Amino acid sequence: MAPVLKVAVIGAGVSGLATAQALKTEGHQVVVYEKSDQLGGTWVYNPQVESDPLGLDPDREIIHSSLYYSLHTNLPYQLMGFSDYPFAIRKYSDSSVFPGHEEVLDFLNEFAREFGLVKLIRFKTEVVRVERVGLRNDQWVVESRADKVSSDEVFDAVVVCNGHYTQPSLADFPGIEKWPGKQMHSHNYRVPEPFQDQIVVVIGDGPSAIDISLEISKVAKEVHLSSKSPDVKIRKLDCVDSMWQHSKIDRVDGNGEVIFQECASVHAYHPPLYRYQYYFPFLKTEEIVAVDDSRVGPLYKHIFSPQLAPNLSFVGLPYNSTPVFLTIDLQAKWIANVLSGKTLLPSEEEMLANIQEHYRYMDDKGIPKQYTHNLGHEFVYSDWLASQLGLTGADEQTRSVLKRYSKFVVEKGLGRCREWRLDSVLQEHES
Ligand code: FAD
């Protein structure tokens, strides 16, 4: 008979919910800690922003979600479901291909209700310490705080699902300490109005940077989008009146100038928006698991620390892991199966060797450490997880949707991604 373990799940976002469902299905005893008063994590829109727009002040009240008011998913809804719980858009009022954030939250609430997960969640309970205990060091104490009262509880295993789009990571350009303009991290962006008539530099070429730039361009005087790549040539974007694309920022100066690597410069008032970092302030592993330049490691398959497996695991670390929900779901199921003993992990040495091989591959290809958890929109990883579970992974239609959608985005650009329609793919499958 499979062992029944007492498992703590930290966070009730997509990762925490998928994990709770998988663990519950395997018969484990689950406690989900959630510091806010509702489930959904990132998908709970909060109009409030933090007191420090850059997120540097350690005493600021932390707002978890980085959603902006107008956000619609950047993936078609067919890519937003779990493996056994598709995102059934027909139930919702908005029948567009790209649901608004409220609909995603509805979907998650429905998922939690359907699988009886809500009663497993301890809301308004923040985990402040997770540390190994026990005679053989094989259990974990979870210290949590609710209403300023601390309590400890011991678990057989802990799954960390605390998200990684909250803690800002700031770019460090020469001259930034003297630069007089206003700075903001996109974590604190909600609506475009504060940028009325400003000259704005937005850093990045991911979906949020593009979305925010397009939205700001409707009210700002000029928007300059700075790519991560040094090779981008300056160009004015055809579809928008007041928006330019540039290469990386080279430096900024005390007169408010922002100088790009292609040598162009703008006098910007209200720049830049930055990246995020992985952050586990509660996790005490004596550096067995550490964050180094956005690499959380060493972790086997982005999930298990070889030395602490299987009792400590992480869900949701990969990014560009499209379809995100499906990947998270398969990670959760794999963890649940491993904890039940249904699926065996390789030995500690083998897991470490696998991780070293991955790091060597990245070095050989010249891929910087910070991209360790970048999966690059392919099914390789989720297919591997599925194979561990005896599943086939994404179905043919999901694969087809992702392939067509990715092609469309490459051809038209991220800025036009929401013009994509499914009809052509469906027709192809029906014929
Ligand atoms: P989160 O959603 O961040 O959930 C983490 C949870 O942990 C939160 O509820 C938090 O309160 C809780 N928590 C944190 N620390 C503690 C603690 N110490 N104690 C107790 N609780 C704690 N994905 C898509 O698939 N499609 C999209 O279109 C898409 N758009 C996105 C747009 C933006 C702006 C962002 C930021 C992300 C987007 N994503 C999108 C990715 C998104 O992050 C994932 O879809 C998903 O929400 C990740 O879920 P998670 O559970 O890992 O993390």
From TrEMBL:
The EC number(s) this enzyme carries: 1.-.-.-
UniProt keyword annotations, A-Z: FAD, Flavoprotein, Monooxygenase, NADP, Oxidoreductase
Pfam families from the UniProt entry: FMO-like (PF00743)
InterPro entries recorded: FAD/NAD-bd_sf, Flavin_mOase, Flavin_mOase-like, FMO-like
One Gene Ontology molecular-function label: flavin adenine dinucleotide binding
Top-level taxon in the UniProt lineage: Eukaryota
UniProt keyword annotation of Cell division present: no
Needed co-factor(s): FAD
UniProt similarity note: Belongs to the FMO family.
PANTHER family the UniProt entry points to: DIMETHYLANILINE MONOOXYGENASE (PTHR23023)
Protein name, UniProt field: Flavin-containing monooxygenase
Species of provenance: Castilleja foliolosa
